[in-house]
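P.,

For your records, the input lines for the assembly:
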Amino acid sequence: MSHFISPVLWQFLTKWMTTFALWPQEASTIAPWTDALYLFLWAMTIFGLVLVGALLFTFAFKYRAEKHPVAIQVEGSTLLEATWTIIPLGIFLFVFVWGAWLYFRIYNPPANAMQIYIVGKQWMWKAEHPGGQHEINALHVPTGRPVQLTMISQDVFHSYSIPAFRVKREVIPGRYSTVWFNATQPGTYHLFCTQYCGTLHSGMIGEIVAMTPDDYQKWTETSTSGTSLAQNGERIFSSLGCNSCHNGTAAARGPNLSGLYGAKITMDDGSTQIATSGWLRDTILNPSQHVPAGYKPIMPTYQGQVSEEGLIDLVEYIKTLKSNYRNQQTLVTAKSSDAAPTTPEMVKP
Amino acid sequence: MSTIVSLPDQSTATLPKRNYLNNEHGLMSWLLTGDHKRIAMLYLVSITFFFFLGGFFAGMIRLELLTPAGDLMAADTYNKMFTMHGIVMIFLFLVPSVPATLGNFLIPIMIGAKDLAFPKINLLSWYLYMIGGTFVLASLVLGGVDTGWTFTTPLSTHYLNTHVITTATAIFIAGFSSIFTGLNFIVTVHRMRAPGMTWFKMPLFVWSNYAAAIMMVLGTPVLAIAITLVALERLVGIGVFDPAKGGDPLLFQHLFWFYSHPAVYIMILPGFGVISEVISTFSRKRVFGYTAVAFSSVAIALFGFFVWAHHMFIMGVSNYSVLVFSLLTMLVAVPSAIKIFNWSFTLQKGSVTFETPMLYAFGFIGLFTIGGLTGVFLGSLGMDIHLTETYFIVAHFHFVMVGGMLMAFLAGVHFWWPKMTGRMYPESVSKLAAIITFIGFILTFFPQFVVGYLGMPRRYHAYPAEFQVLNVLSTAGATVLGVGYLLPLLYLGWSLKYGAIAGNNPWQATGLEWQIQSPPLTENFLVTPIVEQEAYDYEWLARKTAREAQHVA
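Structure tokens returned:
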């Protein structure tokens, strides 16, 4: 065949045929569910199109002026109109329910999901693993295990999209957003920023590398920086002098942070707030908005003093403060250079 | 007997000696005119210019996307191209397209009035539009803007050094043009109807433009507010959208989409009106279920205001609000479905002919059905997560806006061309153009559904190689589409001088506009008509024609 057509054209065609895609890979547990709804919706569209097309062509052909020179005037028909109001309404409501079910399935993470932090900035994606692995424009994840991404932008709106997993979520400045997935197939997949973010928007891409649990274990061991996010957080905690108030003693000017993460806290105005990751971040930046009952609004803002990565480290550190023991230990090793590289817990993903 | 206008045979028809085109002469007679028909023509010329300008940007986008690498132009240039394409096409073409040209020309005549309620405000609308257009051109000449037409904060407020304020000013000013047009239509429809022209005798074109006018008046001020806040943020840093100052970046999204979703209906509703007129005329039959079609326009206008957050499903709005907005989105799809079926059943038992406007109307129904149903994909919460911000959404809104609205606009321009100019367009070449447009459109935008589901994000200057085949198809289609749009420009221009004389009522249509001379007199009607017939009353038309024939004899 290649002898009969221009070699350039031949190369061009073969290159096309080998790289041509019509359907995205299904590489997460959610992908088949999304695809099922997508196929249903196309079935609905084709049905609607064929129905409307059949009506138009039949009527246009049957009642063309040559065959049917005089039109018969009809007012309408309440029965017919009710039919084509109620049936589409029923179908659309069914799609609404199905879509809502899928939405919550995609966005509600399971409780045992592994945590990874993502920081977006013009024009790169930084991934921060709790075990101290840092990546740029790449994300290594294990298969067969739910992974939750907690994401924030340093500048403008971005959007974290992994088409092969059928997940996507906006990455917003000033607040955490989350998305989760459970990869099923080892492989390398596209990561796209899908929210227009300026000059190199189309360069804000990367690779999602899904690995078998064994390979992933090897990867975490070879690529860790040696310091976990919580350990980094502990250093920042000391260097900012947080422990001068949050020292866990009865006389402390700031509340005890032990066991804080996930707790329900009563505020000075009587309302209650839940200590989520995002809430922890916000209390550091806007402390006056989050004064617990029994404390004075004396904490200064740390806006502009800690990077988003630093805030993630602090949040991770506060999350590890399950008992007063860790807090006390930080208090003892108050100088930042002494802050514990040795923690009771091993550095694990 | 003297007031009855005779209905000359098509072949013997002559151009009326006095009409709105030759009533006055000279440039100033156009620039200072209060005649709604002349203002409509001013708009027609201006929006055509901006349509081809926007089309040029589209062409550049498609050329860049012919290859995966970003090799034709720099990334910033590409970003400016799609931004200018969106701004020009939406604010300077689609929003004013049918209302400001066909609506301006026809609404007073259709309800038996001599002009719109406020002729001078009508002229002011055109001037505002032109000033807005000039600002867009200025920002283009100065170096362009690359915010995307959506002006997403904080990108538009803090991270770009292009001409954001110039463009924002353009949109602010052009917005007032559409507010004034809307206001004019509302007052005209309420106050200026001829004796006997009750609400339910009005043509559906008037109903749908009335519904769009309400949306223009209620929605556009919110756009003005959003865009002013963006400008203030850039100029003095008020911090409303800036999280570092306690602002909320999502607030901009709410404000922007509170206008920009209803804007979709502002654009499409007048197109629905055109389709109702065209389908009825070429089936020689009244529109099936007139009341349902009229009220479905009003229902769309009403529901259309409460679906804006469906643009924000992945942005972390609360679970309760995503549910409500998704549900309302499903509800707003129903009135459109009703219209599609009502139009289809208008053909039943009619006497159908296939002139060019009818071909465009068929194209409209097919493409709008796809565009509308793919909108249901995006309104469905879970599906939206994968589809939003990809080429799927680009394909969807081009099916609605280009496949739907532009087809309707071209249907309308061809349909009323004889009335506006007194001359016929050439029938066979225009049928060819309609078919070319349809084929080109499908080829351009259908592959984008596929590439969107593969995950190709919108607004990408460069893309992975496996998306190339579909992008090449799309670019090839755009070339065909370009030919389809250039043809009407040529043959309609030709017909101004060489087209056959149209006569009063070449289509034997029932609307009041077809009962007067083409082109109409400046005052439209010598005597204010007294309306006894309903809209689309072909039996009345037959009786009237028979009576006039006798009088002539």
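Two observations worth noting. The mean pLDDT of chain A is 87. Chain A touches chain B through 89 residues (CB under 8 Å).

Regards
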